[in-house]
Amino acid sequence: MKKLGLMLIVFLLFSLAVSCSKQEENSGEIPEMVEVNLTVNPNPGEPNKPITFEAEVTQGKEKVDDADVSFEVWRSKDEHHEKISVKHTENGIYRLEKTFKQEGTYYVISHVTARDMHNMPKKEFTVGTPSEKEEDSTSGHSMDGMDMDDHENHNQ
């Protein structure tokens, strides 16, 4: 009986060692980044007419249909930010249609979490007549509608 118990313990330890070895091999691979293409249509929009926000989520050539996506929308200089969760629509696209009553300059950030990664591109858009733009907290420059990555590269 002792030999059977000892053999069982040795077998379990061996199985655990093999499992850990395989995990270490797999952890060396770096997965492709989850990319988000954020679009605002139309831009500029008109008051009381819908504007469509789309986040196309991909990883490599694969369309991601299992992401957690929300859109954060606010008018420039307004402390109130509205955050709206959306579901997958089709082909890696997550869509929100929203109408704005007040004219001005607005911002949208798509918060996308997928496959242990987070990506949050930001866009500026206008409804009717533009209003004063917000200051970019990282550089002191006004936001000009570029993606945050483009904006950062622009300031270097």
Question: What are the SSEs and their pairings?
Answer:
Elements (H helix, E strand, L loop, with lengths): L1 H26 L6 E8 L8 E10 L2 E2 L4 E8 L6 E5 L1 E3 L2 E7 L4 E11 L2 E3 L2 E6 L20 H7 L2
Antiparallel strand pairs: 1-2, 2-3, 2-7, 4-5, 4-8, 6-7, 8-9, 8-10
What keywords describe this structure?
disordered C terminus, single chain, 5-stranded antiparallel sheet, Immunoglobulin-like, about 160 residues, elongated, alpha+beta
Describe it for me?
With 156 residues, the chain is α+β, with helices and mostly antiparallel strands. It has a single domain (34-154), classed as Sandwich (Immunoglobulin-like), CATH 2.60.40.10. It has helices at residues 2-27, 148-154, and strands at residues 34-41, 50-59, 62-63, 68-75, 82-86, 88-90, 93-99, 104-114, 117-119, 122-127. Strands 1, 2, 3, 6 and 7 form a five-stranded antiparallel beta sheet that branches. Strands 4, 5, 8, 9 and 10 form a five-stranded antiparallel beta sheet that branches. The termini are far apart.
How would you briefly describe this protein structure?
The chain is an alpha+beta fold. The chain is 21% helix and 40% strand. The protein has a single domain, classed as Immunoglobulin-like.
